[in-house]
Amino acid sequence: MEGVMRSDAKICGESGTESSPRGLGCSLRHFACEQNLLSRPDGSASFLQGVAEKSREWLIRNTCEAVVLGTLHPRTSITVVLQVISDAGSLLACCLNAACMALVDAGVPMRALFCGVTCALDSDGTLMLDPTAKQEKEARAVLTFALDSVERKLLMSTTKGLYSDAELQQCLAAAQAASQHVFRFYRESLQRRYSKS
Amino acid sequence: MEGTVRGLGCSRRARGLNCGTFGVLQEIFGSISTADGSALVKLGNTTVICGIKAEFAAPPTDAPDKGYVVPNVDLPPLCSSRFRSGPPGEEAQVASQFIADVIENSQIIQKEDLCISPGKLAWVLYCDLICLDYDGNILDACTFALLAALKNVQLPEVTISEETALAEVNLKKKSFLNIRTHPVATSFAVFDDTLLIVDPTGEEEHLATGTLTVVMDEEGKLCCLHKPGGSGLTGAKLQDCMSRAVTRHKEVKKLMDEVVKSMKPK
């Protein structure tokens, strides 16, 4: 796959899309996305949402591997490079969203899109979606899920802290509901981008 | 210290489509005499040995009343042909991080119990888990081995003498660690969203489209739900896994209690 050098692909050139601030029924923070902002790679995206640890890389890699149709491109290596610009909580979920958008931008064939959602449970058992860094630190448990776009199945999960089985189901249901907003945002963002050209 | 062997008698791999059988689980306590605590766990063919050494260290400046627990999982070339010698590979690092998360999340030991003198001296427990035979399901085996070894650890009494301000270790007086919870890991191999096999062998893991590991403690609370990618799971399938994990926890806890009881009168 050859990289195409686009002369108009500057960071300020392509205007990104932004989602509305926390609307009714959705407690995700404001998010914005810009695509094709780097000229050299085949595809790129920056995802702004409300470690270079091996473990996180392993999680993101396995999630991408589950959705990318690798059999269509044998003897090909797809490298996904994620650079954290700022971390204000829910970092892994943001990385997953960025990875998905970048794969779409690169035109890699996938069987589904995926999105990351983080839930935090505080000591009372109250559920918070998309927690800030402060909320994450004070929470009793933080659960991050990756859900696919076709049937909202659970692709990846990683959790921190102690929680009960019922709380897990509650968080999963809330994450599935929230993922609809993220997928709608993906769709709008892509529509906006391709309606110009 | 002699070791004691007990086993859970369910035959591994009489495979039908209802793949709910676990491998034979054997534990041997106290196999390493030079370590402060050790355990060898055989889960079917997969063999993991855990050795714990306790050393002194200065407690962290931001938490002066806490000690350290440092786990490390080693997957050497002798356990399987897929590993090469050299720096730890990705799988070993992920396993080490997993064990560190389980220790942190489950609060298996309260780090405050490891403090000897706040701000000056604390215990650091180096937990080394080495796989001797890799036949799948390494995370379950490592968690069992760690739990068994921690139950086996005996720390000597340490007093800070007034005059010299040095630590005096009394090797004759040893006490066991206060183990607060007993996290037990149950792993599943997922095949195309339909079939779930519990306690997968190496071959099954290799062919699976995804894996899931659930770590549960005795109250039914989950310490970790580790699903690193792979094919998707519905909420209902997840619920099945939880109930399987609960039964597994009961079996393992029973086995461990038997072994500990048989070792107590010295």
UniProtKB/TrEMBL annotation, chain A:
<protein>
    <submittedName>
        <fullName>Exosome component 5</fullName>
    </submittedName>
</protein>
<dbReference type="GO" id="GO:0006364">
    <property type="term" value="P:rRNA processing"/>
</dbReference>
<feature type="region of interest" description="Disordered">
    <location>
        <begin position="1"/>
        <end position="22"/>
    </location>
</feature>
<dbReference type="GO" id="GO:0071028">
    <property type="term" value="P:nuclear mRNA surveillance"/>
</dbReference>
<dbReference type="GO" id="GO:0000176">
    <property type="term" value="C:nuclear exosome (RNase complex)"/>
</dbReference>
<dbReference type="GO" id="GO:0034475">
    <property type="term" value="P:U4 snRNA 3'-end processing"/>
</dbReference>
<dbReference type="InterPro" id="IPR027408">
    <property type="entry name" value="PNPase/RNase_PH_dom_sf"/>
</dbReference>
<dbReference type="GO" id="GO:0000177">
    <property type="term" value="C:cytoplasmic exosome (RNase complex)"/>
</dbReference>
<keyword id="KW-0271">Exosome</keyword>
<dbReference type="InterPro" id="IPR015847">
    <property type="entry name" value="ExoRNase_PH_dom2"/>
</dbReference>
<dbReference type="InterPro" id="IPR020568">
    <property type="entry name" value="Ribosomal_Su5_D2-typ_SF"/>
</dbReference>
<dbReference type="InterPro" id="IPR036345">
    <property type="entry name" value="ExoRNase_PH_dom2_sf"/>
</dbReference>
<keyword id="KW-0698">rRNA processing</keyword>
<dbReference type="InterPro" id="IPR001247">
    <property type="entry name" value="ExoRNase_PH_dom1"/>
</dbReference>
<keyword id="KW-0539">Nucleus</keyword>
<dbReference type="GO" id="GO:0005730">
    <property type="term" value="C:nucleolus"/>
</dbReference>
<dbReference type="GO" id="GO:0000791">
    <property type="term" value="C:euchromatin"/>
</dbReference>
<dbReference type="GO" id="GO:0016075">
    <property type="term" value="P:rRNA catabolic process"/>
</dbReference>
<feature type="compositionally biased region" description="Basic and acidic residues">
    <location>
        <begin position="1"/>
        <end position="11"/>
    </location>
</feature>
<feature type="domain" description="Exoribonuclease phosphorolytic">
    <location>
        <begin position="59"/>
        <end position="109"/>
    </location>
</feature>
<dbReference type="GO" id="GO:0005829">
    <property type="term" value="C:cytosol"/>
</dbReference>
<dbReference type="GO" id="GO:0045006">
    <property type="term" value="P:DNA deamination"/>
</dbReference>
TrEMBL record, chain B:
<dbReference type="GO" id="GO:0034476">
    <property type="term" value="P:U5 snRNA 3'-end processing"/>
</dbReference>
<dbReference type="GO" id="GO:0034475">
    <property type="term" value="P:U4 snRNA 3'-end processing"/>
</dbReference>
<keyword id="KW-0271">Exosome</keyword>
<keyword id="KW-0698">rRNA processing</keyword>
<dbReference type="GO" id="GO:0000176">
    <property type="term" value="C:nuclear exosome (RNase complex)"/>
</dbReference>
<dbReference type="InterPro" id="IPR020568">
    <property type="entry name" value="Ribosomal_Su5_D2-typ_SF"/>
</dbReference>
<dbReference type="InterPro" id="IPR036345">
    <property type="entry name" value="ExoRNase_PH_dom2_sf"/>
</dbReference>
<keyword id="KW-0694">RNA-binding</keyword>
<keyword id="KW-0539">Nucleus</keyword>
<dbReference type="GO" id="GO:0071035">
    <property type="term" value="P:nuclear polyadenylation-dependent rRNA catabolic process"/>
</dbReference>
<keyword id="KW-0007">Acetylation</keyword>
<dbReference type="InterPro" id="IPR033196">
    <property type="entry name" value="Rrp43"/>
</dbReference>
<dbReference type="InterPro" id="IPR050590">
    <property type="entry name" value="Exosome_comp_Rrp42_subfam"/>
</dbReference>
<dbReference type="GO" id="GO:0034473">
    <property type="term" value="P:U1 snRNA 3'-end processing"/>
</dbReference>
<dbReference type="GO" id="GO:0000467">
    <property type="term" value="P:exonucleolytic trimming to generate mature 3'-end of 5.8S rRNA from tricistronic rRNA transcript (SSU-rRNA, 5.8S rRNA, LSU-rRNA)"/>
</dbReference>
<dbReference type="Pfam" id="PF01138">
    <property type="entry name" value="RNase_PH"/>
</dbReference>
<comment type="similarity">
    <text>Belongs to the RNase PH family.</text>
</comment>
<dbReference type="GO" id="GO:0071028">
    <property type="term" value="P:nuclear mRNA surveillance"/>
</dbReference>
<keyword id="KW-0963">Cytoplasm</keyword>
<feature type="domain" description="Exoribonuclease phosphorolytic">
    <location>
        <begin position="29"/>
        <end position="156"/>
    </location>
</feature>
<feature type="domain" description="Exoribonuclease phosphorolytic">
    <location>
        <begin position="183"/>
        <end position="246"/>
    </location>
</feature>
<dbReference type="InterPro" id="IPR001247">
    <property type="entry name" value="ExoRNase_PH_dom1"/>
</dbReference>
